[in-house]
Amino acid sequence: MNKIIIYLILIPLITLSQDKRGYIVNVGDEVPKFVVNKKNFIDDNKGKVIMLQFTASWCSVCIKEMPYIEEEIWQTHKENEDFVLLALAKDTERFPQRDKEIAQMTEKTKITYPIVSDKNSKIFNLFAEEKAGVTRNIIIDKEGNIAFLTRLFEKNEFNEMKKKIKGLLKN
User: Fold this and answer.
1) Parallel, antiparallel, or unpaired: how do β-strands 39-40 and 35-36 relate?
2) Which of 23, 91, 137, 151 has the highest Cβ tally under 10 A?
3) How far is residue 55's CA from residue 134's CA, in Å, rounded to a whole number?
4) Which among 20, 18, 38 has a CA at the least distance from the CA of 29?
5) Residue 121 covered by a domain
């Protein structure tokens, strides 16, 4: 009987934590502000649909996903002035993501969209738990609210994300 009670308590907790998938933000939240190249990235892109991709050179799932982002999202929307895509390489002391690693990742994946180092994971930590993994995509609507969150690379979720971007760009 005690085991049943424990399971009844643990199962909802496990499910809840899986739904969050390591995020500390939720769909509908105002996006945290952060600086890229000495500019407030969110304020500078207000009124645009923003896609943030958190990635890393050591992440095999990220490497697998990046060509899909390149072909199915970046090549489709890069000329649209209302769309911004930025990849942030999750830099840590143990796994640095600096110019060398970014160049290797770009060469390997053949991506052309912008990617910068997220030094010490400062931006990542605004969105997800410090020890949470990559790959992650965050879609931000024109009002500066989080509209969609992904974790890992699953084709159905990726397709839902593409639909969300397309819908937000129509508004």
Assistant:
1) antiparallel
2) 137
3) 6
4) 20
5) yes
Burial class (CB in 10 A: 0-12, 13-18, 19+), 14: exposed
Tell the residue number behind the tokens 């969110």, with chain if given. Answer: 42
Number of domains in the chain: 1
- Average pLDDT for residues 121-148, to the nearest whole number? 97
- Cα separation, 42 vs 32, in Å, equals 8
Cβ distance 121 to 137 under 8 Å?
Answer: no
Q: What is the pLDDT of residues 62-85, one digit of tens each?
A: 999 999 999 999 999 999 999 999
* pLDDT for residue 113: 98
Asked, for residue 49, whether it belongs to a domain, the answer is yes
Q: Is residue 115 a part of any domain in this protein?
A: yes
